[in-house]
Queue: 3 jobs
Job 1
Amino acid sequence: MIEIQELCKSYGEKKVLNRVTFTLEPGTVTAVMAASGVGKTTLLRILMGLEKPDSGRILGLDGLRLAAVFQEDRLCENLSPLSNVRLVTGNAVGREEILHGLKAVGLENCVSQPVRELSGGQRRRAALVRALCPPWDLLLLDEPFKGLDHKTRQMVMEYVRKCLLSRPESYTVLVTHDREEAEYLAEQVFFLERV
């Protein structure tokens, strides 16, 4: 279990997180919901070790392999979706499994095309496959379906759900504004309050 205890974070005079406390259970997707600017991304950055809290602590992260989908896709522009995924999987995942993931999100016709030539929605899907393919214990998803049309979003959410079900001992945190996404993927919802 991962325990988030009394987490506080401020930027200058602006307090973003104030004594945030909740628990992540293995095999459970936790949706974190709040209005814009309330600290959802800051919470994920602290979980990733990219930022330090002002006070409080997180227990249970030691030794966990992390994977993340950021609000920005952070792909290598000159590489294809296949090569972007291969970059993070190395030899841990076979080519066929990567191609299966890319096909599952509708990218089978552009697996070898440079990412710079893809649409925003195609890039988003490549970023999701890149995060979900390698081995991970804690998956952090920051608005992962942003910019996808309704039909594509449904297809991608189904792919994500299948991937999560295949890792029953893992932890997942989904940051979203969308109640439908939270209801479809998450077993528990944590609401961050404005400080």
Job 2
Amino acid sequence: MKSESKVAVLLCTYNGSKFIRKQLDSIVNQIHLNWVIYASDDGSTDETLDILKEYQTRLGEDRVFILEGPRRGFAWNFISLLNVVHDDTVYYAFSDQDDVWLDDKLQRAVLMLDALDHEIPALYCGRTMLVDEHDQCIGYSPLFSKKPSFRNALIQSIAGGNTMMMNNVAKDLIIKTPRWEEIVSHDWWIYIVITGCGGNVIYDPNPTIKYRQHSDNLIGSNISMLARMKRIRGVLDGKFQLWIQKNISLLALTDIKLTSDNEMLIKQFNDARCAGLIKRVCLFRKIKMYRQTYFGSVAFALAILFKKV
């Protein structure tokens, strides 16, 4: 089974010359052939732009577009690209500069999204294979089994942006994000918006990308015990609470329509966050928000107890 749906690959770059050829080659070698690369460079001073131009010359200017990034951080580099893609695009896939895609990455996402109602916002995301600088597998991102939902999205991001693909209705929601407002993380924000507006989220348990872990990437994996302890410390020092407040504040500024149930959930969530200990615990038990893992659930329970949500 094949699909001819056109995919815009939104590639954001910044001093990525060390690994970007491998990522570009993995895009070129996709089973799904109908793709166009939109590369937004945020001010590279290495050979990144030369490499992009080399691939543009080889593949054609109709397959590789090179743009100047907004220089407002990686989140806005990705989101700003959604505004420049050609109108005949069906799906939008985010790409980091230093990963490697398995050859069925686009095909799996396209076929799953094709099966859904195109009038409803839809987002594909999934698990990743973690690799070192030499492409050796060092593990996998956590496998999540609970259903994606707004109750989960408000307190957890379940997938990296480098796994995400969305349809046009979802894209139209995301581009309503108020320009240059601070975004904690573009992948978390997208998960919140799509679920909040009643969209469909597909979480693929089968890894389709090799997610490179190295000293230069902005956001690495969170599977080690040290990373888990850091997350719990982040709860206790208020970082988790600050992130949640920034997401909620941005939701209030964004011209989108949440479902009636999710509008009520936001109100209940804010009431619970502000309540005294006993009432706070009772209210959170009532609204049944959840994280996907055991350690995440422990961290959230601590956040509730210490009023750090």
Job 3
Amino acid sequence: MRLTDLLIKNLKAPERGQKTYFDDTLRGFGVRVSQGGSKTFVVMVGRDRKLTTLGRYPDTALADARRRAKTVQGAYKPSDPSKAPSLTFSEAVGRFVFDTGLRAKKRTVEEYERLLKRHFAF
């Protein structure tokens, strides 16, 4: 959904807990509505998908919150992509398989390795 002032004003509080509504136009940006009815702008950043609070609505305007979200998201991106380390395909595959092994089941990792070896020569 595209967040607008009218839409945010009309968001209903959930019966329990909090509900986050994300914006379609700016990835990771949204508004969180608590059971008490308070509305807070948030942005999801980083590999951990950490939610960062930007300000409360209506104290913080929607346009200001979007600008802050872009600034926060920009801080997580490399400042100069040309300085990023270059990897060979084999090194990238090795890192991928290692990282996958940290968060996936053994069988999943084995299947990824099988498919990579089948479709790519490394």
